[in-house]
Each structure stands twice: as structure tokens, then as C-alpha cells.
Amino acid sequence: MTADESSIPIVDFSRWAKASSEEKKEIAKELTDACISVGFVYIVNHGVSDEMLDEAFGWSQKFFALPEEKKMLAPHPAGPNVHRGYSWPGLEKVSQYIHKDEDGDADAKDEELRKIGDVKESYEIGSDECTNQPNVWIPEEVLPGFRPFMTDFYWQCYGTAQELLRALAIGIGLGDPDFLLKFHDGHNNQLRLLHYPPVEAEKLASDSIARMPAHTDWGSITMLFQDDCGGLQVEHPRKPGVFMNAPTVRNAICMNVGDLLMRWSNDYLKSTLHRVTSPPLSGKTADGKSMTRARYSIPYFVSPNPDALIECLPACTNTQNPVKYGPVVQEDYRRMRAKLQYPEKQNMPGAAKTVSVA
How confident is the model over 101-143, as pLDDT tens digits? Predict the structure, then answer.
């Protein structure tokens, strides 16, 4: 395997729905092998239609084209506990660093990491039945049709996620294809609309600003849809610190394993570092500075239910491979990883006003 784009496998999921038991085992093995070797895989013919994906990106572009004051009618709540609504550029900070209150310098480390802002904006959507993270919807009169479409799109993505979890269960050798589904009722997932506005390429290259620094995802799996801009990179499976490009495969899911599935599988499946860096340039400004293209992407994060206990699966341990992680509850793990992501106090864009957690 070399550090080029061909290192991320492609799995055709078109046969899955009508496949025999043996055929499903073959497809599941393809999927699982990719998750073992790279932690990332492209999935084509996955069941979310091209038409729906085109419409989803269209709605995303409409939302981010709104004036700032309109987007701020659905602001992300202060603090890291509720991850919903609109996050303006510079609010969220993605990092692999884990803030632990017992560490004496944790707050200082948070402040140091936040000196380099992430230049992106996002809108977070969940199930309307998710009580611990209620949705913050943009008013219907601001963007008519947005909420019903995104609600439908959310559940369409969950339908595909269910089949991927079944395939992974078969590939791991759990016996019951629905084993993982018992921990995933769909209400704790997250649909994220992401927009990376054009920025000066020189500032990205000098690390004075960031897109999205290297990190792993926290949940079970992530299903990512990308536009044709580029910029996503994945750590090479055999060369730590070396990142390879993950180019767009039109309307494919770029799926990756999250931390909790890696813990469940006792490191059998790989949660891989990835980042968003400088995409191709779009031209120069009037004063000659090179600018990046705007980038849109839509990740769908599939997470276990908040009260799910994540502990090593019996099929993934033996005397030669002892249990590597202790049990953890999903909500506890999420809050630990989210501690740095959103500050307890946040400055609203275009104003000196500070919003605090109640």
C-alpha cells in the first residue's frame, strides 16, 4: 500500500439488499478488511440517492449563503454539552487533545490550542426525539422547506447506517447481524452541514489559521459526503504522521471508524486520524494573494445511544489479544472528548456580547 489516493478501498454496496447469506459475508469482509487496514473506505451504491444528495448540498449552500444575522437565529448553544445549531467561523475548535479537569494545566492547554482558529462554519442537526441534545432549527420563514428536507435526509442516512452496522457485525464475526443495532436507535446521531469559506492559502500554509486539524471521530462510524473541492486527508496506515489525500468519489460515502467502535472491537477496527487542509486554489485576489476554493461537505455521525455501555466484544479478544479498554458509557465519553470543542463562554460574531452556559 502506498501513500496515494488508491490506498482507500472502494466497496460496491449495490448487491447488499438482495444478497444471499454467503454474498453478504463477502461484502462484509470487504468492508471490514478496509476498516482493519485503513479505517476509511469509499462505499458506492449505498442507498442514498444521487438526487437526494444533490438536494442536500443545494440546501447547505442556501443556508450558508444567508446573511449572518439570519443564521444567528439558530445559534449553537454555549458550551460543549449540546452540539446543535449554527456554529460561526472560529467558534468550534477541533483537536485530538483530550481536556481532563484533573490535569492542572488543562485550561491553559485549551487556551493555547484556541489561538489558531478553525476557519469553517457548520450547522448541526439531530433527531427531534433526542432529549439530551435538542435541535436548534432555523425559523421556517427564513428558509422554507429546509427543516422537513433535512429531517427526511437524516432518517434516510440512518437507513443506510443500519445496513453498514449489520455488515460490520457480520464482518467482525458477531453472529447476530443486528447486534450493533441494539445500541443504535438513530436518535443520538448527528447530521452536520459544513462550509469552509475561501481563505488565503498562505495563512493555511503558515498555520496561522486552520481548516480542521488532525483528529479521530468519537462515535461508531462516520458517513461523509463531499463536494468536488478536495482537502480531506487520512493518516497513512503504516507511516504515522504522513497523510494521504482522500479525493472525492462522486456521491460515494467516505466511511470511517470512530473511537467507540474501535474500543468495542478491541482495536480490531481502526479509528484513523484525518484532517481537512488546503484544497486546490481558486485564483488570486486583487492584491495577488492566492485563495482556496470554498468547500462543502456533509458528515453523518452514527453514535450509540447515550446510555450504551461500550465494552470489548467477546469475538474480539482472546488469550493472545487481551482486553485493551475498560467499559465506558457513550455520553460520558462524548462529554470528555467535547470538553475543548466549544467554550463555556463564547463571543457572538459581529458583537462584543458574550454568551455563557446557564
Answer: 555 555 555 455 445 567 889 999 999 999 999 999 999 999 9
Length of the chain: 358
**How far is residue 164's CA from residue 220's CA, in Å, rounded to a whole number?**
11
DSSP-H helix ranges across the chain: 21-37, 50-64, 68-71, 106-113, 146-172, 201-205, 259-264, 330-338
**pTM, to two decimals:** 0.89
What is the CATH superfamily name and number for domain 5-344? B-lactam Antibiotic, Isopenicillin N Synthase; Chain (2.60.120.330)
Could you give the C-alpha distances from 316 to 34, 171, 172, 267, in angstroms and in order? 17, 11, 8, 8
Name beta bridge partners: 51. none
Alpha-carbon separation of residue 277 from 125, 185, 207, 210 (angstroms): 24, 34, 10, 7
Domain range list for the chain:
5-344
Q: How far does Cα 164 stand from its chain's mean position?
A: 16
The per-residue pLDDT for range 283-335, each reduced to its tens digit, is 666 577 888 888 999 999 999 999 999 999 999 999 999 999 999 999 999 98
